[in-house]
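Fold Annotation — chain and its backbone

Encoding — discrete vocabulary of local shapes
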Amino acid sequence: GPAAAPGPPRELPVLEPVLPEEPNGTDSAKAPKVSCEERNTTGIEHFTLQILNVSQDLMEFLNPNSSDCTLVLFYTPWCRFSASLAPHFNSLPRAFPTLRFLALDASQHSSLSTRFGTVAVPNILLFQGAKPMARFNHTDRTLETLKDFIFNQTGIEAKSDVTVTQEDWEGPLPSVLTKGIDWLLLFSVLFLASFVMYATVRTESIRWLIPGQEHEHQE
């Protein structure tokens, strides 16, 4: 049939999937997807990751009226993938001093995990202001892949002399697993067990109410 008349571009979803990188030499591969306002680093001596505690709300650290960018990590201290990612993520603030980096325990901020769809951990989101713009989807979570992700999304180049050091293994994000209880998993198991018990009792009650079932049992 005849081609439809061109219309206004449709609005993109809030969380855009990270597309595969295009071959080198194309203009689109160099064009940043997110235009970040880089912060003034004058007077800042130490560039480090900030970890939110249970009483702090992520939205208090994101300014909806600005275009500055923040990389937020959702993790849990007993997840081995979060622990292996920790030293690499700890080094990022030094590689990108004009950006902000936050981390929060997803088990302590379950409402945020539901809101932003961070069901599995570790999960990394790039925010512009208070709006999530992109999600890190690579399974290889190293300093180099994180650098590439930030550069591809923002066009901001990392400092070339930054590497993962012994201090990055020590903190602030823990690289050693801690023992803990996954309360969400425990609640799910208890709920499922309760439902099975209820269904079993209910089925037995209905069987005894059906005419003829009781007599057959007595016989």
